[in-house]
Each structure stands twice: as C-alpha cells, then as structure tokens.
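Render this sequence as a predicted structure.
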Amino acid sequence: MMLRQAARRRAAAVLTALVVLTVLTGCGYWRPFNDAVVGRTQTGVEVVEFGGAGTVYRGRALTTTDGQTWRKVLVPEVTFSSGLPGLRVRTEDCVPGQPERCYRVVAGQARVQETADGGRHWTTAWELTAGRTLFLRRGDGYGADSTGAAPRLESTSLVLLPAAAGYNAGYTVVVADQNDGLVLRRPDGRWARVGLAGEADDPGGAVPDTGLGRNIGKEYLLALSAAGLALLAGLGAARLRRPDGRPRRAVLAAEGARMLLGALWAAGLDLADGFSGEPGTGAAAVMLLLTCCVLTALVLLRRTWPATRALSLVLAGSALVVGLLTLLPFLGWTVARPDSYTLACWLALGLAGCGTAVNWLLGHRLSAAARH
C-alpha cells in the first residue's frame, strides 16, 4: 500500500511538471496576418503591407533608401499590392554596378537564390528550411486564423540597394516573404528575418524560428509515454522472474498486452493533429490527463507487485531517464539541431527503444539477484 501511495505521489509530481511545461510551451508570439510586398517607385524602395490570409487588416506603406531606416508613406488604405500606384514589383534583381551578380526568389518557397555569372548557375543564398517552417507553423503566431486560412511562408519579391552610409562596399537585399514579413541581406553578407515593418522607423522583430522547448507539447506527452513503457518493461521482466505460481506463458501474455496497450496509446498521441501537428493548449491538457490515467492504470493495476521496493525505485528512475532521452532530440529540434523533424523522430524512437530494452534487462537481472 505504501508503495502504491509513493507511486501515486510521483505520478502527481510528473503531472504537475508537465502541466507547467505545456502552459509554458503554449505561450507563443502573436502577429497579424498580413502580406508584405517590396518594390520600387519613383521616390525609392517601398514596402506595402496589407490584409492577408483571409483577414481584414488596414494596410500601410513604408519607404527606404538603404534598407536600414524606414519611414511611413501617406497613402490611402491598402488592401492589395496593386493598391499603391506606381509600385513596380520584381522577382529578380541585380547588384548595382555588378550586372553579373543577381538574386531571385523561388516561387512558392521561402528561398532566395543568387548567381555570380549572369544566370548560368544559381545557388541558394537564403532559405527558411522545412524544419524551421514547421516550427513556425506550430507556434501561436502562425496558426490558422479564425477563417481557417493558414499563413503563407514564401518569398514573393525583392529589391537590391547600395550599401548604407558608413559602409565602404557591399549592398543590401530586401526580400518580401509574404506573411512572414521581410528578410534582409546586410552589406556584410549576413541574412536575417526581420519581420514586418513596425510602427517605428525600422522593421519590427520577426517571430523567432527557434526556441528551446517551445512548440513541442505533444512530444512531452510522447516522452512521458516512453517512460511509462520503459517502466512496464522492467516490471514485466521482474514478473517473469517471479511468476508467483502462474504459468510463464500466461504472465508473458499479460505483460505483453500491457506493453501493446501502452505502445498503441503512444502511437495515438503521435498521430494526434497529424504526424507533425501540434495540439492546442486545451487539447494538450486533456491528452496529458488521459495519458497519466492510462499509464497509471497499466502500471498499478496488478494483483501482486512483482518487484521489491528497491527494485521499483531503480526501475522508476531508469524509466525517467528513458523519458528524458526520448525528449532530447525534440528539444534539439526546437533549436534546429537537428533541423529535420523526421530525423528528430527517428532519434527519439531509437533512444526510447534502447532505453526500454535496458530497463527490461535491469528488471530481469536485478529481480534474479534478489531471489538468491
């Protein structure tokens, strides 16, 4: 009885910690849905922002001569890019004074290519990778709006400018990246997402495409399930060593059924909101509660406890390590190491499998030693 109470207390502690983590990771960045288009007018380079992704947004226009400082342009309300007279939008532009070096956007993708030989060979100069795109779409700032429309993260237009005052050489590339705002190549060659042009004299900040522990609420639940499976494996091995008079085949079938149910639950979590989707905060809270109930039932509902108190503590601690190892690749994915979500999933699956096997060996060997 005392052992079960201790297990319940540990489960409650894990539940509280995961609730806090879910709340924290659910706090994203808000931004309006609006499109950005950059082009030239008779007075210079201008960026137009207007309502996009199915929303109604009062547009505005800003102008720059160097890509570093911006000022507002007094124009009527803008609802689409052609609403600003005289705006010439281009998808390809060349460096002033260097006609062989040009840049172009890739239709339908958040990507900019460059050429140094007049267009014979093109290479990628900047791109928003698939991993970072998924990370942004999982965040609150880039979820579908009330109409159900999803934001578009793709480069639409660009302009090249001479370097700002104070630079001896170089040039600036200003890229409009649809709902994501602006991307700048500074004269020193560094690329940066700078977001939408703000109310001040310079562009506003972009929604970060990395953030340790953010946008992986479902993966926390998967790590908890992996820990539960590892604990089930260890207890199952201990029970096989100490079958308490029951046929070994019956014990193996019972423990296998527990493991199968736990694995099916984990697979169901992985498929929630699609393989790479992210449930909302409310859905994540419900999934968390159900996960804790399922794992608690699979672990505690037994006629007899198959392990000693010391062995139970060892297996619980080892299972916790398995859960943390399973979470590690997803934490790395949130900071783009690895950038591929699929690779992070395979790494997590491998670590969870190895950890579960180790816990089974611990339960098997330590239970055998306790009998002698």
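Summary. DSSP finds seven helices and 13 strands in the chain. Confidence is low (pLDDT under 50) at residues 18-33.
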